[in-house]
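Let's study a protein:

___
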Amino acid sequence: MVVVVANRERTLYGGAFGKLDARGTFDMSTDALFLIKSMTKPVTSVAIMMLKVQGMLDLGDPVGRYLPKLKNAEVIAAFDLKPEDHNRLASLFTRINGKFVWIQPPALYKPEVFGDQGLLATADDYMLFLQMLLNGGQFGGKRLLTERSVEEMTRNQIGPLTVEEQPNAMLKHSNPFPFGAGEDKFGLGFQLKEREEDDARSSGSCSWAGLYNTHFWGDLKLGIAVVLMTQALPFYDGRCIQLLMDIEKRIYRNLD
């Protein structure tokens, strides 16, 4: 796994643990590449908002019409895996009878462009995306989104409705998810935390995750963001989620 913690200005912590490959030959590194699956959705949502601000689309139009444009959008990290980067791609595992077992990948990685999945990212790259949101749409002196767009994306867009628990219809792929079900709200591309708790992210914090247990949250009130990258099935694996919760408690107990 790789864990990165940052505030609005800088990285506060970055660590890599375990092995990059199935044979245990190479240590995990902070520049490892991960298939982030549904963590593509927030990136797509930001790209859509960028196109909207530029007057290039109507939000009533089918998003699929704009995927070719999104592939070239400034906010997109990478769909393609360059030949020289294959050795940086983290291996995928699934838990069987309590142990992680390697899932052999196809001989050739074939990128596909979807709005809801398909991106590759390092933890550091995804953190840059989150820092842009923490800074109201700008980072490194460059504005990608208007402050109003960020506010719209990170406020409740579903009224009195709440996030519902998704059942484990495919046991090998996912456990029931997410925590916050029955309370949390949705913005535009993000789950929004509703309840204020001790030693936890602030209410209004935005988050999402990917099928292979990649997770993030951005606490816009306190200006803290966290990225946790693994490549493990099933989604919401108990030990992965416990790890995520332990990281959260450790961070918020030690904030100045």
In short: The helical segments are 40-53, 67-71, 123-134, 147-153, 238-253. The chain is about 20% helix and 20% strand. The domain at 2-253 is CATH 3.40.710.10 (Beta-lactamase).
